[in-house]
Amino acid sequence: MAVLAILQDADVLPPEGTPDANRVIKVVIQFQSVFMKSSNPAVQAFLSQALAAKTGSGADEAASRFRSTGWTSDVLAALSEQWAATAIDQRERLAPGFRQFNISLADFDWLMELVAKACTAFEQRGQNIHQVFAQRRREMPGGAQ
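Above: the chain's sequence. Below: its structure in token form.
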């Protein structure tokens, strides 16, 4: 999965075989499901706001692409930035939607922290998450970006 690969490339993925490594695999999969499938209004509003802030008029296209192909670097970056900009009381509104998928606000906070650290690591190397994600996606079966 490209998300795990970029976290590994950024050297922020927990060591293989540790409880945190298993946790990151779970949260990457579960949060993709949350944002793709949840009918919770707060969850869908959060995704929409994140994509609108990041992509402007391309938000609907970005959401549609995500729902058909899974994680994209645009969605990850948008969610990370939206999460950082969201007040704690606003974050709490997401908890019921997350609980439906057996994950928590703490899980999402941790995932978004990993994504933010990956973005910083890539920037320090003169790269960006979008370039690395696209390359990793091309290397995966199917070769889609």
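The chain is about 75% helix and 0% strand.
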